[in-house]
Amino acid sequence: MAAHCRRVGLALRPHAKTHKSVRIARLQLDAGAIGICCATIGEAELLCSAGISGVLVTSPVVQPANIQRLVRLAEGGRVMAVVDDAGNLRALSAAAAAAGARLPLLVDFDIGLGRTGCATLESAVELARLARALPGVLTAGVQGYAGHLQHVEAFAARRELAAGQAAKMAELVAALGAEGLAPGIVSGGGTGTHDIDHGGVFTELQAGSYTVMDVEYGEVELTAASTRPVFEAALFVRTTVVSANAKGMATTDAGLKRFATDGPRPRIARGAPEGAVYGFSGDEHGCVVFSDASGRLEVGAALECIVPHCDPTVNLYDHYHCVRGDELVDIWPVDARGAY
Amino acid sequence: MAAHCRRVGLALRPHAKTHKSVRIARLQLDAGAIGICCATIGEAELLCSAGISGVLVTSPVVQPANIQRLVRLAEGGRVMAVVDDAGNLRALSAAAAAAGARLPLLVDFDIGLGRTGCATLESAVELARLARALPGVLTAGVQGYAGHLQHVEAFAARRELAAGQAAKMAELVAALGAEGLAPGIVSGGGTGTHDIDHGGVFTELQAGSYTVMDVEYGEVELTAASTRPVFEAALFVRTTVVSANAKGMATTDAGLKRFATDGPRPRIARGAPEGAVYGFSGDEHGCVVFSDASGRLEVGAALECIVPHCDPTVNLYDHYHCVRGDELVDIWPVDARGAY
Question: Is B84 within 8 Å of A243 (Cβ atoms)?
Fold first, then answer.
């Protein structure tokens, strides 16, 4: 992803909400990332305390206690935040000014997802004007994230939809320029639009899932040039058969507590007969259903599954076990697991 | 639940896989439970190291490293395990005998769930015979869990289905008796069958969800006597509105990482206008959709939601915040969060 971004002239600020790992964030920075995105103040604290700079919290920080935590990070000069609400902006300004800090902010703009962001161009411009007038804050740019487009499977369809979103963002950038508020940073995009969001309005890319991939993204045609995955799955859940008495299936120890369940089924990558599919058998158990009656796995057999959806699956574990072939070469903490 | 079990003459060995809390396990023991069930060796270690006895691991323990951990607990005399496979039984026996320990085992019998357990009466009896012949193990009884019946909503339908399962268990108990292997413990049942699994073959109940409840169990007619929930929801996820620019909805900070998503939607218990429903807007965000256009929640507003499915939701958090009314009265660790 870093090489791609260099090639297309886009800065990369990858999203740590996927991996929640200081170690992986450092690898991303070493490869050329200009900073790291995160979703929660707890993640930001972990990244900043590890000495990482250019940390962008991509969700509004609104609770008074969290605003205080954000201001403490702003004093260290390592963090930026987003804002989409005048009341929240005033609260951020007051807290930062009281601490003698200067918090860089991106105005969050809703380019179609309907989740966070100013709903209209006018309200976004007005918020930027207010930010300019208030103490303790600094308008560093704008953010717009088309999350609903990232998993549109066909590349051409995704590119067409993304063009409409980028056009909205370009209108905002022009309107801000006309006010003397031209944004230095235009941040957005994801793994699904990484080969789309360049050569236009965005200055940087927030992609996260590419780091480890999952079943969902494995089905997306990520670039125009190729239909096979550009990024390979690097994240697997290893599970063991604990019962093998039922016909046509085996029971494992990885159920609803070991995979995120909002997406498709886990996909068996290794350890099961061809055609076997994975299912859930409750909180503590999964099942491997064989494609024909001759299929069998013994108690104790190990399987590895590509995870349905990487971000919420990583959040279920305390460690990555890093393997090369069959060798365990390192264990990395999921530093920000449960860090809200 | 303890009072119910006393009344109907059933022992209670509640399942800690729901709450993963030593503190709550102690409250259950203080109320009269004879021991505590758990699902993983990691949970068993935490319970045993807290001085709790009568710990039953309700899933087969098959990995060599986990068998060693189990044997270490057996040396302390606090743990029982289940078995449904002759190879696994020999491995448990060898490890326990080598350590000079005696591991009490329940023969796990599949009474209809098709997940773990011996598939036939004959194979279950044979396994009990083998256990009698092997060193290091002790046949303490049998286990059969009708997990697929727990959420059958109508009480009468659930009772009828459960009667069939209990009859299978009674056949096994009789067959074992004829072999001189009459089981001391017949363990099974759950919150959904707590008012069904008594006066018959079962000697003890493994119910877990009743401790905190959830949306799924809230919809189940738990007893013959009443259609309203016998157990009230005690577990809520508190979330904050972080964005309120979109019409007809508000965006919160509790998404796919803060609720288990295998069940129904979270149910808003407090903090939103009548008729509002909760949905998911990605990994980090939820949405509150209002029932009419006048609905609104401001940025910073707090909501509390009943969780869709308690067990895998608890596993996402490190602490319970214990409240009485609006007062925070204690913080309890989720000791076994992620303890596999």
Answer: yes
Kindly provide the residue ranges of all beta strands, DSSP E only, lying in chain B, ordered along the sequence.
Answer: 11-12, 36-38, 55-57, 79-83, 103-108, 137-144, 185-188, 204-205, 236-243, 249-252, 267-270, 277-280, 286-289, 302-306, 319-324, 327-333
- Per-residue pLDDT tens over the stretch A117-165: 999 999 999 999 999 999 999 999 999 998 889 889 899 999 999 999 9
How many residues would you count in chain A?
A: 340
Angle at B105 between CA B104 and CA B107, to 5 degrees: 160
Round to whole Å and give the CA distance between A15 and A56: 9
Whether B315 and A316 lie within 8 Å, measured CB to CB: yes
Q: Does A150 touch chain B (CB under 8 A)?
A: no
- Cα angle A265, A271, A274 (rounded to 5 degrees) comes to 70
pLDDT recorded at residue B227: 52
**Tell me: the pLDDT tens digits for B96-154?**
999 999 999 999 999 999 999 999 999 999 999 999 999 999 999 999 998 889 889 89
ipTM: 0.96
Q: Note whether A17 contacts B283, CB cutoff 8 Å.
A: yes
How many beta-carbon contacts under 8 Å exist across A and B?
158
Q: Of chain A residues 158-187, which have a CB less than 8 A from chain B? A: none
The amino acid occupying position B225 is A
Is-contact B142 B176, C-beta < 8 A?
yes
> Cβ separation of A318 and B309 shorter than 8 Å?
no
pLDDT per position as a tens digit, B170-217 = 999 999 999 999 999 999 999 999 999 888 999 999 999 999 999 999
Burial A139-167 (b: 16+ CB within 10 A, else e): bbbbbbbbbbbbbbeebeebbebbeebbe
Within an 8 Å CB–CB cutoff, is residue B304 touching chain A? Answer: no
Instruction: Suggest the residue from A40, A115, A240 to mutate for an interface test with chain B (most B CBs closer than 10 A).
Output: A115
pLDDT at A228: 52
Q: How far is A24 from chain B (nearest CA, A)?
A: 19
Question: Chain B, 14-73: which have a CB under 8 Å from a chain A CB?
Answer: 17, 39-40, 59-63
Helix (H, G, I), strand (E, B) or coil at B141: strand
Do B245 and A118 make contact, defined as CB atoms within 8 angstroms?
Answer: yes
User: Quick one: A43 exposed, middle or buried, by C-beta within 10 A (0-12, 13-18, 19+)?
Assistant: buried
- CA nearest to A319 within chain B: B338
Contact check, Cβ <8 Å, A87/B298: yes
Tokens (6 digits) for A114: 């309907």
Residue B241: strand pairing partners? B252
Interchain CB contact of B139 with A (< 8 Å): no
